[in-house]
Amino acid sequence: MNRKEEYRNLLEELESTPTELDYTLTRAQAKLKNSRKHQLWRGCLRGLTGFCLIFVLLVNCSTTFAYTCGRIPIIKALAQFVAFSPSLSAAVDNQYVQPMALEVTQEDITARVEYVIVDQKQLNIFYSLDSKLYTALQATPSIRKEGGEPLEGYGLSSGESNVCNDALRHITVDFIEEDMPSSMELHLEIDDVGSFIKTEVIQEEPVQEKEKSDSTKVTEISFLLEFDPYYTAQGETITLNQAFEIDGQILELTTVDIYPTHIRINLDDQAENTAWLQSLTFYLTNEKGKRYEAISNGITATGDQDSPMMVSHRLESSFFSDAQSLILHITDVTWLNKNMEKVKVDLKNKTAEAMPEGVVFERADRKGEDWLLTFSAKKLKGNAGYQLWNQTYYDEHNHVYHYNSWSTHTRFYDEETDERIEKPDTFEVAFALENYPYDTVYLSPAYSCRVHLEEPITLKIK
Amino acid sequence: MHKRKGARKMDNNEFAIRIEKLKKRLYRTAYLYVGNEASALEVVDEVVYKGLKGLKKLREPEYFDTWMTRILINECKKELKRLKRTQHKKDITDSEYESFDYDSLPLKEAISKLPEALRLVIILRYFSEYTLAQVAESLNIPQGTVVTRQRRALKLLKLDLVEEESV
After folding, report:
1. Would you place residue A285 in the very low, low, confident or very high pLDDT band (cuts 50, 70, 90)?
2. Distance between CA atoms of residues B149 and A207, nearest Å
């Protein structure tokens, strides 16, 4: 086949578009409607290697707040901005906020780092971008040591999307095992994401003219963040080493870390257990009956390098309430059976040797060199969807592959009527095994079963 | 030089009509740019959402296609960046691409190996039905530069197309 034939074939191939494209506008309209209540947590997690994480996909709206009257009212804007997080709200209420007042102007863009809320393990950076030239700026943040060396053992997330100029933006940096350094460099790569429209006709120019870059990147701005050691020292660890039985498995509550920004419940398990702990539904109460709920925004649990168990689980902080007593209440638990770390899936016949509880194998379609897999499951209360499979999969020779993107839908294709139908309690997850030539794959379930405890487990923390 | 025309805002109904006409072209561009269906669909979904959400920022409705295409290119770049980060893929460097053997690869794969600036021009011009002027506007580069890039890309791909043969 010569190149021209290939070209024509490729044009023909492009003529056929997936049926999902028919509903792109419907999805956009639904997402826009939903975004008034919820903001999709689209943050990227960077910097972490070797740690498994669970994070919440949908969070309560954290509306952006523009500075309207100079710089004085910003602390009020910050208080409103962090209203989605009880821990950060308590930090602001208790004036646990380090002012930074750093400003850099470059290429018609002014970046300001106003405040940080920082403790031993977590850093929350509140900053803004402003420009008279650009109206849709987006920053990709990264951090490194002072002097430019890379930092390790952290996760960085930023959930900004369509933020107006001069409005607050938020970056969270989580250190899993390492402690917060005394300083670090914050690097912002700033892009113009499409608001600037040229109205002039571009004149024909000589071919030899120096080419103008078509990159969206406008500039890069760096700040040196130096933390008050008072803040970075904050955090208390309570050692318990208390074993308990839950749904027939033995876990040990080893320590509880209470930081201003969150609480970590750290657990260990026993080799005899038949399942690995994945997640807990739980809360804390103090002596006055006040509840501290599980984290509803960002990382909710972390694992370690040695096993699929999630060893550390997060709650909102009681730090500022000076609780004399804390009781942990566990009402539900999610497990991954040890014999389900990998499950064999027959793609051709759409069968699997085992599936996570409640998950239905909807479709497996060959798309060129790829397989497109679709699964459905029941939504959890108050949550649009959740992780069904981990992103690692294997072939029969145990070669490791990863898929990096997936889509979640709440409308279903009905083959009989050739229409999309709405199932309010269910969601679909689709992902592609790219360039995968085989008909058999080993997928990694994110869980095997969820168990509601008839009798909640209560454990005294202090 | 055109004068800026009086501001006429596009409403949601007009957006819906325009997007129905444009979405196939957006998908084709995204599919060839990011290289797989799932990512392309995700990108188009995000672009339509961003377009709908940012409709008030569109000051000149006649530039709608160009505006959406610029959003699409940004989203494709972000998706590619994400894929590269997670799959540890590396682009061919500027010093490598002139000597790279594009001829040995199927056309689709060969396009994906082109330097980004050339790849975009080829996709928009020869697969997504954009005129020379539209490509120049979408990429914010002179038309002369578009011509240079498409010529260089066609030569690397050994694809002997004249202007009339583009769709």
Report:
1. very high
2. 9
Which of the pair, A318 or B104, is modelled with greater confidence? Answer: A318
| pTM of the complete model | 0.61
Helix pair B37-53, B64-87: axis angle to 10 deg: 140
Residue B98 to residue B118: CA distance in whole angstroms: 12
Q: Cβ B37–A406 below 8 Å, yes or no?
A: no
Higher-pLDDT residue of B81 and A220 is A220
ipTM: 0.86
Number of H helices, E strands in chain A: 5, 31
| CA distance, residue A9 to nearest chain B CA (Å) | 10
Beta carbons of A7 and B66 less than 8 Å apart = no
Question: Which of A34-48, A145-159, B7-21, B34-48 has the largest mean confidence?
Answer: B34-48
Specify burial of residue A68 (Cβ count, 10 A radius: 0-12, 13-18, 19+).
exposed
DSSP for A322-390 reads: T-S-EEEEEEEEEEEEGGGSSEEEETTTTEES---TT-EEEEEEEETTEEEEEEEEEPPTT-S----EE
pLDDT digits (tens, 9 = 90+) for A289-315: 999 999 877 778 888 777 889 999 999
Q: How many CB atoms lie under 10 A from the CB of residue A255?
A: 15
Scanning the structure block, which residue is given the tokens 């670090």? A184
Least confident of A242-251, B40-49, B99-108: B99-108
* Dihedral sign (CA A129, A134, A135, A136): negative
pLDDT tens digit string along A241-262? 999 999 999 999 999 999 999 9
DSSP character string of A106-166: ETTEEEEEEEEEE-SSEEEEEEEEEESS-SSEEEEEEEE-TTSPPP-SEEEEE---SPPTT
Task: Tell me how far CA of residue A356 lies from CA of A247, A343, A386, in angstroms.
Answer: 17, 10, 12
Residues 43-82 of A with CB under 8 A from B: 44, 46
What mean pLDDT is predicted for residues A126-131?
91
- Tokens 């009781």 -> residue: A327
Rounded to an integer, what distance in angstroms lies between the CA atom of residue A225 and that of residue A98?
A: 11
Residues of A in contact with B32 (CB under 8 A): 14
User: To which residue do tokens 């600037």 refer?
Assistant: A196
Residue of A28, A135, A430 with shortest CB distance to B45: A28
**Among B88, B90, B78, B91, residue whose Cα is nearest residue B39:** B78
Of B31, B83, B117, the CB nearest to A214: B117
List b or e across A293-318, with b for residues whose CB sees 16 or more CB atoms inside 10 angstroms.
Answer: ebbbbbbbbbbeeeebbbbbbbbbbb
Residue of A nearest to B145 (CA): A207
